[in-house]
TrEMBL record:
Signal peptide: none
Lineage: Bacteria, Bacillati, Actinomycetota, Actinomycetes, Micrococcales
Record key words, sorted: Membrane, Transmembrane, Transmembrane helix
Spans traversing the lipid bilayer: 12-30, 50-70, 82-99, 105-121, 128-150, 170-188, 200-227, 239-257, 264-288, 300-319
Region (Disordered): 336-356
Superkingdom field: Bacteria
Pfam families: DUF418, HGSNAT_cat
Record has Transcription regulation as a keyword: no
Protein name: Uncharacterized membrane protein YeiB
Domain DUF418 positions: 239-328
Amino acid sequence: MTSDTRIVGIDVARGLAVLGMFGAHIGVIMPFDWLEPDTWSDVVSGRSSILFATLAGVSIAIMSGRTTVVSGVDLSRVRLRLAVRAFLVFVIGGLLIALGTNVAVILPVYAMLFAMALPFLRMPPLALFGSALVIAVAVPLFLATVGPLLGDPPNEGIALASDLFLNGSYPALLWIAFVLVGLGIGRLDLAARSVQGGLLILGAMLATLGYSVGEFAAATLGASSIATTEPHSGSPFEVVGSLGFALAVLGICLYASRVIHRPLFPLAAVGSMALTVYTVHIVVIAMIGASVPGEDDNSLWIIFVVVALAAASLWKIFIGKGPLEWLLAVASRSATRPPRADRLDPATPQQRNPES
């Protein structure tokens, strides 16, 4: 399998993450209760974006060689391509924020996470998982202790940096843990059923541990920024629980895509052009008004999902790569393309076979 070959299960999982973020942005969601099916849609809150970030790490692993990391000049080119992609995603995110919706746009932080992952590309999976564990435990404690002491930022630049790395809905200093886990997972043989089953089992265990212990801590110690499992709280319990959820979903999607490939095509189509679909849905929210959600039911969410599945499927069939994905691919390839003189045959620098 070459590095350009798509793993359908990853696209399916990414499609679920994007559609889940639709729900978090425009859905009518009530606090989760196992005994109330009407509240089960709360599963998308926080967890969809964490799944999205974890899959970013998997994508980085695929771009940098999958199970065998590229080295030398090839590694430098991969890093440059990732840096170019991060810059463009950051710009797109800034433009979406400028639309003035009530959505906490993830793309600027997503771009920062790509850039922050660059030094970790050659790290082995176990070291990546260990680093993520340390971050998951230490950073929430750091943010809870130091965050309140920082006060109001003295200027807009520091305010932006603080929002991106410390105090926003997706603090990059903490969320890099999800990317590192995804990067480690991407170094594994994702086609192996043992890996797929392991992701499901380990994910279920982590989700159970994180959420159950978190609920116990909140009930015993009183809810706080640390003792809670609330979405976007950034507590160690939410990090572990939501990461476990992401791993379980990925394991299921990798296995399901082998068993029921065709029915999952619309989801995979959305996932293969996630940046485009995400961007379009923010633009549409801006067009219909920043007051959403505000309906009494989830009909708007359903409409967004159906349109996204249909439009992405048709685009995939008749055109192929999503427009923003095409832009990122062309820009990153252009940035790393060697000068024309370097591409000539060294034996005959002035002559080339016109049929080659």
